[in-house]
Design a protein that fits this description.
single chain; alpha+beta; Rossmann fold; five-stranded antiparallel beta sheet; five-stranded parallel beta sheet
């Protein structure tokens, strides 16, 4: 038997065990998992894994991805913050968990991270000294037998798990301290009560803690031990208040003398029973050295029940919350040095990655791996040492969205309704903030209905947020919104067909002309930009020329020059025939506008002298 987390891999019967329950795996799926488990801690390339599982047979590498996806579902693993199987794009996989073998102590068989892995883990923690210190302060308070409940909150990839990992490694050095973890899994909340709690209990009742903890559970909460060993026919019995009280008492007893830290990951996916148990543990008054740490991903919004529990505990001073913010530029530089394992970074890399990642550690690391895979960053040998250097000036290239982040974002978008997806796609037509009226125009929909959808998304998710309100020339008020991260906007924009984008841009341009009829010069560039984005350069140039004419009528000659120069720039991207038709007489108009602008400037200077 090979043990990792709360799982046991039975190589004799070729099956997987979890909390006493046997999980049958198809032969090839078992073979993939077995090879990963037998080679923990190191990179296993796609070719190596294919050769091991399909010897002398050609198999498409894409097959591996299918098997790994299925294994992640079985293990309750998260590709974004993996505990078991880490994907290294374009390279292969790495098994992360510590593995022990029956008859051998966990210390002698624990996985040792390969060179560079520890540096990456350390790098992921840059800029989190205060947060780590705060967690340690809560742990120190256990010395006064005062229970602690701490929520670690932040968006996807902000470093919640990395922070908690570092904290747990520190706590593990405390004599007698016990640290166990339970993982909430999306989609299980409605099907399996107490899933993360049972996972944490399985760790409590496994070596090296079982001799101290299992007798307490058997004495104080026997029904929980029976459920853990799958002797209880109906797990729903564990939701009864009396039985929940038994577990609270058992955990408090375990933590009476030495600290017990229970980490619940991704609490936003927890079932109601788990949340009620957490609330009950927080509210009890018995002296104990029990600490609950829960990570909460605000990118998913918070379930109503979780929001209620957090608010209730916060009001009564029974919990603390540590919110993780994006990394500052200096901290991001330190992270990149750790990822590349070199002190001097390629020119412009830090500013380029910070701009694209907006300080998100996961996004930043993924961006660097993407640059390496695309060979924008290349490994060169200098003075007998290898180092990463930029092959092209980073500021001059379009890097695109890293594949692993694109998949992650697509999964988030895929959970939304088709209408919500279409609303966000229309919003992605704008570079920064998108107004609701423009989305309504693009979709040929009602403004009030679009605002209601956008406000609903902003309330539920951190994907978008309301940024303000504009009053349009016709007196209508329209809210405008921003995406939480530019990469979300990029993915939403690229998932639309060219024809759909073009049609939407034209609808927005025409709505702008209608809204600002008589004063189009105010939004001429915006109108032209949408026509240009739709590939209709002639209409873009015509709109600019009309705006310039109106500007000259108001004697705003400098504005007219700027507008006509913009028209010439757009014309430069058109084919010869289109350019000749669209720009006929444009040079003369521009020359006249420049002459008028110079005359107005001369007249102004003369007036100032007199």
């Amino acid at each position: 038997m090979q043990h990792f987390g709360s799982f046991r891999l039975d190589t004799a019967d070729e099956c997987l065990w979890h909390r006493g329950r046997q999980i049958a795996l198809p032969p090839k799926q078992f073979a993939v998992l077995r090879y990963l488990v037998e080679h923990p801690g190191r990179l296993i390339s796609h070719d190596e894994l294919l050769d091991a599982v399909w010897p002398e047979t050609y198999v498409q590498p894409q097959v591996l991805r299918t098997y790994v996806l299925e294994l992640r579902k079985i293990l309750g693993d998260d590709a974004r913050q993996p505990r078991y199987i880490q994907s290294l794009p374009k390279r292969g996989y790495r098994f992360l968990a510590a593995v022990t073998v029956d008859g051998a102590g966990p210390e002698t068989h624990a996985v040792t991270a390969p060179a560079g892995e520890e540096s990456r883990r350390g790098a992921a923690l840059v800029g989190r000294a205060e947060e780590l210190k705060a967690l340690q302060a809560h742990f120190d308070a256990l010395g006064k037998s005062k229970r602690q409940v701490v929520f670690v909150a932040g968006g996807a990839g902000i470093g919640k798990t990395a922070l908690v990992d570092a904290f747990c490694r520190t706590v593990a050095c405390t004599e007698g301290a016990v640290v166990v973890r339970g993982q909430c899994v999306q989609g299980l909340a409605d099907r399996e009560a107490f899933y993360p709690v049972m996972e944490a209990l399985a760790e409590l009742c496994a070596p090296p803690h079982e001799e101290r903890t299992k007798p307490v559970l058997a004495r104080k909460a026997p029904s929980w031990l029976a459920a853990l060993e799958r002797q209880a026919p109906d797990g729903s019995a564990l939701t009864r208040e009396r039985v929940m009280s038994d577990l609270c008492c058992a955990l408090e007893t375990m933590a009476a003398e030495t600290p017990v830290v229970i980490v619940l990951e991704d609490l936003h996916w927890a079932d109601a029973s788990t949340l009620n148990l957490l609330a009950a543990l927080a509210r009890r008054r018995a002296s104990t050295r029990l600490m609950l740490v829960a990570t909460v991903g605000v990118h998913n919004g918070e379930a109503v029940e979780l929001k209620r529990v957090k608010h209730d505990l916060r009001v009564h001073g029974l919990c603390a919350e540590i919110s993780l913010e994006p990394l500052r530029p200096a901290h991001l530089e330190a992270l990149l040095r750790g990822v590349l394992e070199q002190d001097e970074l390629p020119r412009d890399l830090a500013s380029f990655v910070h701009e694209r990642s907006e300080g998100n550690p996961l996004f930043a690391a993924a961006m660097v791996r993407h640059l390496q895979a695309q060979r924008f960053l290349v490994r060169v040998e200098r003075d007998g040492a290898g180092r990463w250097e930029a092959r092209v000036p980073l500021r001059e290239m379009e890097s695109g969205v890293p594949e692993e982040l694109e998949q992650m974002i697509e999964l988030e978008i895929g959970r939304l309704s088709p209408r919500e997806q279409r609303v966000l796609e229309a919003g992605s037509l704008f570079n920064v903030a998108f107004p609701a009226w423009a989305v309504a125009a693009a979709m040929e929909d009602d403004l009030a209905a679009i605002e209601e959808t956008c406000d609903g998304l902003a309330r539920r998710l951190a994907l978008v947020k309301r940024a303000g309100q504009d009053e349009l020339p016709d007196g209508t008020c329209s809210g405008f919104y921003v995406f939480a991260h530019g990469l979300y906007r990029d993915v939403l924009y690229q998932r639309q067909t060219l024809s759909l984008r073009a049609r939407s841009h034209v609808h927005i341009a025409e709505r702008l002309r209608a809204l600002f009829a008589g004063c189009e010069a105010r939004v001429a560039r915006e109108i032209a930009w949408h026509y240009e984005a739709a590939g209709q350069r002639s209409k873009a140039i015509a709109a600019l020329r009309e705006a310039a004419r109106m500007a000259k009528e108001r004697q705003a000659f400098s504005a007219a020059v700027d507008i006509l120069e913009c028209a010439l720039r757009i014309a430069g991207d058109a084919d010869q025939t289109e350019r000749e038709l669209a720009t006929r007489g444009l040079d003369a108009e521009l020359a006249e506008a420049r002459k008028s602008a110079q005359g107005a400037e001369d007249e102004k200077c003369a007036g100032q002298k007199t």
